[in-house]
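QA checklist item 7 of 12: single-chain prediction sanity check.
[x] sequence parsed
[x] length recorded as 188
[x] structure emitted
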Amino acid sequence: MELVQTILRSAVNGRSVGLEEAIRVLDCDAHHANRVLRQMAEAGYLEPADILDGLFYWQLTPNGTRLATESKRKRIGRDKVQTIISELLARAKVINSDPNRLQRITLKLFGSALEEHDDYGDVDVSIAYVRRQLSDIERERLENRLKARQSKSDRQSFHGRLMGAERQDTREIMAFLKKRSATSFAHE
């Protein structure tokens, strides 16, 4: 797959790939390079483009462009994607059941994880924060607890003074979702 990516990344002006690029990347003869390019087309990464100076060229399909621009990080399988989603949902339930939070969250899955693939680059999730309906006394109690956990620099900043408790709440929620720290939830 790395060689396929390298061939796709060698596209002239990011658009077309010919035998020359495949021969150079694969260090092979024209017959083998041609066979690899055709297999890449069958896999959906290339499609016929044009004949320039008597040579046939391929252009990248949207899937080919995605693969060419994708970072070289390790791909993950469907089982790992399901595990990530399950863990995120479990952490969201902890957050949403915590009476010491100013906010609740809603997660929305999007991107390739919604489709059936052999492997995935990541799991795309958007997070919506919604303020809880609280009495003035309860809101003030929670805000004071959250402000007490703010960093000194955040307390001194304009936004930190204006939105300190909610910013701190959001920061702690995000850290918990990313598994960076569950300590803020243990304190409560």
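[x] summary fact logged: Residues 78-97 form the longest helix (20 residues).
[ ] second reviewer sign-off
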